[in-house]
Write a structure and sequence with these properties.
CATH class: Alpha Beta
CATH architecture: 2-Layer Sandwich
Oligomer: single chain
Number of helices: 2
Radius of gyration: 13 Å
CATH topology: Double Stranded RNA Binding Domain
Shape: globular
Length: 85
């Protein structure tokens, strides 16, 4: 399974942002998500020179971690990210 297939399974969007003033920098992350690091939630994103690089970088950072969506809301959801191969 890759990150795009995982996004389909959990029915979540990966947001790509482009920063033209930062030398063609793109970032990628799941919308409204944080990564659980022990008892702390941290923001995680991937960075790259094109959308594919940013998504690939993000996938490598979040694999085998727990993603938390809407952490402060009533519809909080958590998923363990698989190992992307």
């Amino acid at each position: 399974m890759n990150i795009i297939e995982f996004a389909d399974v959990i029915d979540k969007e990966i947001i790509i942002r482009y920063y033209p003033n930062q030398g063609r920098r793109f970032t990628a992350q799941f919308d409204r998500s944080e990564t659980k690091d022990g008892a702390i939630l941290v923001g995680s994103y991937g960075s790259g020179t094109d959308p594919e690089d940013a998504i690939s970088n993000y996938a490598s950072k979040i694999q085998l971690k727990r993603l938390v969506f809407n952490a402060g809301g009533k519809k909080r959801q958590e998923y363990v990210v698989p190992n992307f191969t």
